[in-house]
Amino acid sequence: MTAANMLRARVTELADAAVADVLTDLASMTGLAGDHPRGVVVDSPPGAGKSMLVVRAAADLAAAGEPLMVVAQTNGQVDDLVDRLALAAPDLAIGRLSAQDYLPAPAVARHVAVRVARQVGDLAGCPVVVGTAAKWATVGEGQWPWAIVDEAYQMRSDMLLRIASRFRRGLFVGDPGQLDPFSTVEIDRWTGLTWDPMQSAVAVLLRNNPDLPVRRLPVSWRLPSSAAPVVAEAFYPFTGFVAGTVAEQRWMEFSTRVLRTGPVDEAIDMAAASGWALYELPARHTVRTDGEAVAACAKLAERVLQRGVVGHCERTPAGQPLTAGRIAIGTAHRDQAQAIRAQLGPLSAAGVTVDTANRLQGREYDLTIVLHPLSGRRDATAFHLEAGRLCVLTSRHRHACIVVARVGIPELLDAHPSTEPVHINVPAKFPDGWEANQAVMASLVKHRVRAS
Amino acid sequence: MSTLTALARAQAVSRGIAQPVSTVRHVHISDRPLVLVALALAGEANAPLAVMVGDDLRSARLLVVSQPRNRDQRFAFAARLAEVVVGYVDDCRSTVENVPPGAGAEIRERFATAPQIIVPNSAGFGFVRLLGRSTRFRRPSGEYAVDPAVPVLGRWLTFFAERAEIPGSCLLLAATQALALHWASGQSNVEDLNLAALMGWIDPPPGMTGPEAAAAAEDPLTWPPAGPATDPTFDNEVLAPLITACGRPGMSTRPRHTAVSALENALAGQLAPTWRLVWRAVELLRALPPGARVAARWESDKDAFTGYSDYLRDGGTPQPRRDSAVAAARRLNWLERSQASYAAQRALDDPLVLAEYRLTGEAFGGEVTAAEPDRVDASGKRRKLRPLVTVVTGDVLRIEPGTVLVSPSRPAQSARVVSVSAVPDTRAADARAAVVLELSGGMGRALTAVPGSVPQVGERLCYTTLTDSYQPRGSFPDRDDTPWTHGGPPPVYVPTNEDVTEEWS
Asked: What is the CATH number of domain A3-220?
């Protein structure tokens, strides 16, 4: 047995055991009444098979004769879950609860076992009903024995309050390292209350029910072995996780040869060789839509496509050309994404995704280019230091991640230690954004390429 | 900071005076506001030291606590403040107006005016909130009885402090916030929290530039802090000896009276400059023309005032110490809806505010290049008038087809984006885009539009994604049905003795 196969067997065993634990928890709670724990929380690092778990659990509960509701946060997530669930359990009647103006996505419409309805009453007889949290909040009556809440860390606790009467027990699945939900109003009126509506659903759930079991998925199938330790150390310092693959299983090659190399090609070579690259522009304080950084992001994406990168991984050992649809460019602000899209021109239309961290949550690509949130800034605000933002940006890739930044981020961090007030009765949140930023920069400097 | 505000601040520096960032007034200014400038004792949790309060520049009333650490004196102060504040609130309840009925509703009555308290800065909100918190649970009888006006004052102050959290409400205003909404100074946001410095930029004294006046405002001798925190040098050099003098044991009436007057004079000297500044700020704000939607927001303030007034009259309990899970979620939902509608109203009222959204792609301005005012959509059961207009714009666009837009010049009409395309024939170097819009509403009932209701070719106008349309309230469980995820139903509040024995702070 090769080293890769041995590792594969070991991590598969680890991952399977974690999933089995969750399913055992669910089975043991099913049918019980009274004061037993009324749910399970599952923390899942990026790409650890969260959706697979949701589908497995839903199929298991449905098979055990427990009707259940499945709650996701966006229509895209709901459609995706419905599709996966219908593929995994073709005989299961699935209800897709939708808003008035919803047109079934092709992935949903192709399944005969899926019924789409606006009213939950029209879905009677479906053991599994899937909908967005906002849609579930409009359902005024009925109670399901079980609920599965997907992306529960992205849901605000007031939304959980609105839907919690609809179920008796719940499985809450999500990634604690991603961005916290936010509000358009700034107010500290509820700071410290265990039911603070500005907190995430899981935070409030666990503070009010501290005996709820918390399980963890230990293996990231998405992140390559180059990225898993960096992301785990910076953003999951106490729980950690391992990569499901070894370096030999994931690698990139070029189908063209470069005649004149420049810093852009060097950065791409570096990323192909080590999984990371830090493309450093000269130090400068800039406006938010830094023209040079925007151009660099676009140029990198363009060049990756020109060079005909072929990615090899455990799914496609023979290699698969890296197309525009497998590349994403991540930013902190919408206007930055807008500027990069404009700069990309036809490439953006060809399918390169350019979006903010908030919108990239839960998505997966082969190669990502990240405009560092602190690049060119004079100050490091709580928004730009938020650990979840950098975590989302640096954990979307299966092969490599190229970070574009201006020189001077460690110095900027040193000049702006986090000064957020500490409140009574608010549990300390880990990881600290400042520390996580330092940790990521400390890893990235080893993969530095100077732009000039 | 948005790009436009940054520009306005840079211009303020180069021109040496604050620059307007709005074309209309976005706050309601009452004909008779109650200005309240307060000082608290350093080192104590909101122990009132002195207050200058009144509804006219010339009739300031000074209330002083000669020993702020004395509990009895604090409650005596609260009773005297209640006389002014509750008296002012009661005056606002003297006239009633009829509200025209909404759809199917009956004619309602509400008070024709509402009280408006103006404090110098946002720290003043904290003073009002904490003073309300310290007094609203007290009782006029039994152990630790206080003046009956004290708990009433507490409830009203809490009411004002809670209204101040609602975007767009004007029952409790901070002068610095209201000014910063209309002018950009050449200093930082933190420096703008100092009323004297901000007023220096906006309204420098004759012969001085804005930065000079702001620099002069840093001298605590001429411009004492606007409270509630006091100047530490004043505390040590002036206040401490005077308070000691007032509290010397075994003093006869006459020397005590002299000592108290000395303290009052010193504190009046600290309060008077800020008092005049706040009134000057009120004057400046009042001189601005009000935005079109300011009156409607003030009406909802009057409704809230009438509602709370009725609640108190019917013997309502004081506001709870903390929001329950359901109350907190409901309130957040309410605040978010108010925030969205306030932002939209300001943008629709004020082209300068709308310009901020044009820069971020949430609004655009342009010229109508084509119009089909008589287009009828016959696809549904009924034929509907749905004119098409094409607007060509040079603005940044972040608008997808299908989005519904509103134009400030035709707020009753909604425009759905049919398509967005680049204009190929461009003389200018900058990119231009053509937006095709399908209009509905605001054109009369017939299948031909009322003249002027559809934009004509050549007309310049703006469209924005911000809408001020009614947002439905979120549905929440009843308090008694609070789910297990949020700790279950909370206990019912029963007034206890702890309420009255509670420490002040």
From this structure: 3.40.50.300
